[in-house]
Design goal:
This protein has helices spanning 26-30, 45-52, 81-87, 126-144, and strands at residues 8-12, 36-39, 58-63, 66-73, 91-100, 118-121. By secondary structure, the protein is of the alpha+beta class. The longest helix has 19 residues, at 126-144.
Length: 145
């Protein structure tokens, strides 16, 4: 098992069938009583990573350059026919939504998170620093409440 503990991840889920397929609203997946993230079933590293990321991994849910929410994975990967009918993804993970990203906290550089369905952010990247800053901001605001 790879050690992913030094990385944050980002995922986009609005095109479960690929670029020319049906578009869904990923905020609906995060608004369920038990929020979920999802991905298709492909023979590639993104799908393998999705299934093998450890519980507790922090990831940013995004739609292209728009950041939607910061989440923490809370379950192993699974399949669910009802979720698949509704959202078209095949693989799912339960998540805890740590916070939704406000307009003021959107990245200035709209291409900061431009690649891939699921990608990692190593500590030396601008993506990692952006997510880390949001985590600290959420933590500080929770201490104030």
């Amino acid at each position: 098992m790879n050690d992913y503990s030094d990385k944050y991840w980002h995922i986009q889920m609005h095109l479960p069938e690929g670029k020319d397929g049906t578009e869904i609203d990923p905020t609906e997946m995060l608004s369920l009583p038990q929020p979920v993230i999802g991905t298709g079933e492909w023979e590639n590293r993104q799908c393998d990573y999705f299934k093998s990321l450890p519980i507790g991994t922090i990831l940013m849910v995004r739609r292209g350059g728009q950041m939607i929410a910061l989440c923490k994975i809370t379950s192993e990967a699974y399949t669910d026919d009802e979720l698949e009918k509704r959202f078209l993804h095949i693989n799912y993970r339960n998540v805890a939504v740590l916070g939704y990203i406000s307009d003021e906290d959107q990245p200035i550089n709209k291409h900061l998170f431009s690649q891939g369905t699921l990608s990692s952010c190593s500590p030396w990247t601008d993506q990692w620093r952006y997510i880390d800053k949001l985590i600290r901001k959420l933590h500080d605001s929770n201490l104030d409440n």
